[in-house]
Write a structure and sequence with these properties.
The protein is elongated and about 80 Å long. The strands form 2 sheets. Strands 1-2-3-4 form a 4-stranded antiparallel beta sheet, sandwiched between helices. A hairpin with a 4-residue loop joins β1 and β2. With 237 residues, it is α/β, with parallel strands linked by helices. The relative contact order is 0.07. It has 2 domains: 74 residues, no CATH class; 119 residues, Rossmann fold (3-Layer(aba) Sandwich), CATH 3.40.50.150. The protein is built from 8 helices and 7 strands. The longest helix is centred in the N-terminal third of the chain and has 25 residues. About 4% of the residues have low confidence.
């Protein structure tokens, strides 16, 4: 049922997208082959993917990226139209979006976060290639979300869940000495250390999450040097 529901929306869009390629060639010179068009299209997708992943996504929030690409589409549309009135209109819209980008992107991001996290007051949002890290507040407590899922609550973490996760696996070993802990937003570190282990290697896949924890939870073990010498922290490259 879901397949037929979404197909009803995507089929018209797919037909229009396919027609755009054909109509675009009708405005080009006759000596420009369809094979060359597909080659340039593939090269554009490849270059755009690299630029978007490594140069745009890590440094700009989604609202700014969306508005920037919309402005580029307006400019591309202006270049495609022959009528001066359409060119001037699209170029004017692109200029408005570029000049209002710093203010408008923050407004749209704040509006989006308020809808994604109802009942919370969003304090900050950082982005990494792996997730969106949002810090929000409600009833005097600070929540850290990773891609919409709560990973840590401060100043009172979920002690019961942390202890269950840490203690039960360690009980299967008669005398654990070295423990590798992957992820978990550092809330499982202290329960593991309670078992008297000699060394805990804590690795966090997302460096932005580790930076957020260092900022909001400095009294745990995120101190240079770490307050607990038996715990080493690192981030997975």
């Amino acid at each position: 049922m879901t397949f037929f529901f979404f197909s009803g929306f995507l089929a018209p869009l797919g037909a229009v997208t396919g027609a755009q390629f054909t109509l675009g060639f009708s405005h080009l010179k006759k000596n420009f082959s369809a094979a060359s068009g597909y080659l340039f299209e593939s090269a554009g997708y490849f270059a755009g993917g690299i630029i978007f992943t490594y140069l745009i996504l890590p440094y700009f929030n989604p609202s700014a990226v969306t508005m920037s690409f919309t402005a580029l589409l307006f400019i591309a549309g202006a270049l495609a139209f022959a009528r001066p009135v359409f060119k001037k209109t699209l170029l004017l819209l692109a200029a408005i979006m570029v000049f209002t980008l710093p203010w408008a992107s923050k407004y749209f991001e704040s509006f989006t976060l308020s809808k994604l996290y109802p009942g919370f007051t969003a304090l900050s949002a950082v982005y990494s290639p792996y997730a969106q890290i949002v810090t929000a507040e409600r009833n005097g407590e600070t929540y850290i979300f990773s891609n919409g899922l709560p990973v840590l609550t401060l100043p009172n973490p979920d002690t019961e869940r942390s202890e269950k996760f840490a203690h039960l696996p360690l009980l299967f070993h008669h005398r654990p000495q070295k423990v590798l802990l992957l992820g978990g937003a550092a809330k499982f570190v202290q329960p593991v250390l309670d078992h008297g282990v000699a060394l805990v290697d804590y690795a966090e896949p997302d460096p932005k999450l580790l930076e957020t924890l260092q900022k909001l939870w400095p009294d745990n073990f995120f101190r240079p040097p770490p307050a607990n010498p038996s715990c080493r922290r690192q981030r997975v490259p």
